Amino acid sequence: MDFLRALFSLLFFISGIYLLIDGFAPEIDGRLLLAACGFFLIAYIFWPSKKRNQREETYFWMDWLELVIELPIQVFLWIFRLFARLFKDGDPGVDL
Question: Helices 30-46 and 60-87 meet at what angle, rounded to 10?
Fold first, then answer.
């Protein structure tokens, strides 16, 4: 079952990369970029993550794919948390 989930997740991730590249060439198309973000999110949800205790087996190739598939969501969450810290109540340490 984990292999099937990983396969679907990989297909969604590759589709997201294709839509991301196609969204920037020859001119920027926001609909394709939004669809790419959706495909990355679906790939993240489908992936049997070892961090979220959904996978017990240890395969080195699945560990590498987990790093690649979860990277776009982790980068987005990191940027979101950075902005949340800047604009939360109190003294952020940055003067706008």
Answer: 120
